[in-house]
Amino acid sequence: MTRTIDLQPVPFDTPYQLRQSRLFTSLTAGDTDMLVLNPGPSLTYLTGLHFHLSERPVIAIFTPHHPVILILPELEAGKTESLPFDVSTFPYGENPEEWLAVFRQASLAAGMSGKQIGVEPDRLRFLELELLKSAAPEATFISAEEMIANFRMIKDASEIKAMHNAVKIAQDALTNALPQFKIGMTEHDFSAELTLQILRAGSDSEIPFSPIVSAGSNSANPHATPTKRPIQSGDLLVIDWGASYQGYISDMTRTFAIGEVESEFKKIAQIVLNANQAGREKVKPGLALEGIDQAAREVIQKAGYGEYFIHRTGHGIGMDTHEPPYVRAGNSMRIETGMTFTIEPGIYLPARGGVRIEDDILVTSNGAESLTNLPRTLETLT
Amino acid sequence: MTRTIDLQPVPFDTPYQLRQSRLFTSLTAGDTDMLVLNPGPSLTYLTGLHFHLSERPVIAIFTPHHPVILILPELEAGKTESLPFDVSTFPYGENPEEWLAVFRQASLAAGMSGKQIGVEPDRLRFLELELLKSAAPEATFISAEEMIANFRMIKDASEIKAMHNAVKIAQDALTNALPQFKIGMTEHDFSAELTLQILRAGSDSEIPFSPIVSAGSNSANPHATPTKRPIQSGDLLVIDWGASYQGYISDMTRTFAIGEVESEFKKIAQIVLNANQAGREKVKPGLALEGIDQAAREVIQKAGYGEYFIHRTGHGIGMDTHEPPYVRAGNSMRIETGMTFTIEPGIYLPARGGVRIEDDILVTSNGAESLTNLPRTLETLT
Fold first, then answer.
1. For residue range A128-148, what is the model confidence (pLDDT) as tens digits?
2. Which CATH number is B157-381 given?
3. CATH for the stretch B3-152
4. Are strands B34-37 and B116-119 parallel, antiparallel or unpaired?
5. Of B315 and A5, the one with more pLDDT
6. What residue segments make up the domains of chain A, in order of their start?
7. What is the DSSP letter of A56?
8. How close does chain A come to B24, measured CA to CA in Å?
9. Which residues of A touch B311 (CB under 8 A)?
10. How much is the ipTM here?
């Protein structure tokens, strides 16, 4: 076989250069002069770099026509070697008294003085903000939430592939964990078993969140923490879990009946299933996100349980477990192809039990593809 | 048996009232008028309440002679029932447009206007800060880092007991995981096994951090992430793990030799052990924290490996994995009885391998008690 040499120039070797180039186009066109990020998914999205958020500040400054400027501990400086784009690093040692001087050098290099600087409101902390303000006293700091959301909300093919993998890992994990379930196990112990299976099935070492395993009255709390209470016959069991694959997350919920459960529990399980389906059927590019919430909520309200559906219908999902777009009343944002979000209606009967069915949805050109496909009906565990 | 009725007034039923009372004394005496916290260990320390840091802002406002003011999602309002102190709650629904009005009401109730408001620099985000500033435009926001550290650095008996438990769980977990180790396992798979054992041994469901399991060249990176590379004969294996018990954390490191390792690896393991011991022996109330760093570093420097000990000697530990006090050059803060911190010298030979030995230390009236006591010598796994 003859190899042909492709002489087409490859403009970008990695997604990071393309993403930075798009960011710079957006910065050049808008009022925000530069973007300043601290550790988190947006920094990883734009650079491939992963830092823990810690007591040591790490900052990346993105400015058109400049190398990416990184302020970071010397200890982490090795991470910036062999990056596929230009960086200029400003490392500091173990004494926090060094921080301000290093921030000042970086600010000077980036030309921050007097500029409008976009930040992530739910990431950037007082710690970094005060250092940035002292280093660039004439600069103005504004929310770049919408700009960042506009980039990250629409997933590309490689991101969708990673999310498919994250879903497969989570589904395999539950499938492998369920045979270990026995009535009388504690919520905590089944959560531990599921955690092991998530890791064994191939999740990134840092799982996106500790599985919620909540039974009986605890299942009526959507944000429950697993307890040492044994799971008993007659309980509803809510399992809300996910995995991470190359930084992309899955987040799903299924509800089970433990032995024989009261008839109202079966009834609400069916109502929630209908609401989940109504929500999924409402997904269509061009319609408003609030319409999905409305469709799911209406099913529950019409069945007389409206007051027991106490949260929004869903949240965006990707590199963050919760990210834009939010599927809630009042969100008139339009659904777009390539968005990924959860649809997770629930009914919570206080002190008795709850049902939630949560799927991860990819918006396609003609509707919704549910990445998650384990059975949604109320299966019985004995 | 005759029961006697204790007519002594019990001033506080829980540690939270005492801690709040101390905070109010400190606020009354100082320049900071009130303290504003968002979710994290300090909020739990003062209230027993646990919230996840999420896209929905949660704020607690502590002012002398006022009930604790809580701004939180309606979804979380159930958590404030039956608290042992007075609270005044300001809940909001699922539409972020409601946030500012609720922040304004809370600011009015707390009398925030024109006040000096302390915040946690490494917790409070731009999100909450901007809402607080809009709600109380005349207020000034300043770092309460030192005030909070002064409360949390000195552990009481119940906190020390919880930390003892967290250490026991971590040590039991490694003891139970090691028999599952086989040469050829990946770092990732052994980390998964250790995670299961941490949870099985009784850790809180949310473990403080994903275990670092790093072998061969990866062990030369102090902040390594477990990879899919099989652990091989001749490797050094660094295991850095911890557990959580009632919100208190353990964090320890041991290093192993896989099969026969080169003689320099054995040599650096002995030097690090000597440095760890020198650091522990230097702990004494009244001396400066930097002295511990100096003592450990000197051992490594004198052995000719100073340039390969690339981080501080330790960090405080308690409800946070990293918290004050920091054991580093330049920290002249005095050691006090009841402080808890790590001592974790290391030598990292780039691209070859590393050794770290990390203990959790409690300062007693006459020196250091190491809560962690698994063998520190370089044991061989085969």
1. 999 999 999 899 999 999 999
2. 3.90.230.10
3. 3.40.350.10
4. parallel
5. B315
6. 3-152, 157-381
7. S
8. 23
9. 75, 94
10. 0.91
